[in-house]
Structure prediction request, 141 residues.
Amino acid sequence: TGSWTDTTFNMTGPASIVVTIPTASSFHFEATFGGSVFGCSSQPAVSATVVQGPGGANQWNANGFAIDFTTQNNGTAILNHDFTMRTLDGHGVPGCRPGVSWVLTGAFNTGYTGFSGAVTTTLENGSTANALITMAKGARG
Prediction:
């Protein structure tokens, strides 16, 4: 759990990623960002089940994982994680503003107890807004 901060428009909100392991060969990934993300009202969480496989959308293996979401109102979000580098990068288009796009670059710390990332959002008029995401591992429930 943690927060995101839009350093361009001076806005902030809560952020969380929850991973559960329903089987030995799959995990469920859920991301929630509260507040006025992309200038929209608060959006519901996005989630996907990721299964063990050779690589590709919604699959994981020894190298990492890839997640391909369809968000509310037919937005998109694609995330890629490299286990060796501990990076989590992605891009997408929010369903609430289809003329906007975003790019995420970030990384987990060595113990996977924290994540720091930067998001660059390109608005309809071509201008950009920058945001920072910081999360720390929460207690297991």
Summary: The mean pLDDT is 95. The chain is about 0% helix and 60% strand. The domain at 2-136 is CATH 2.40.128.20 (Lipocalin).
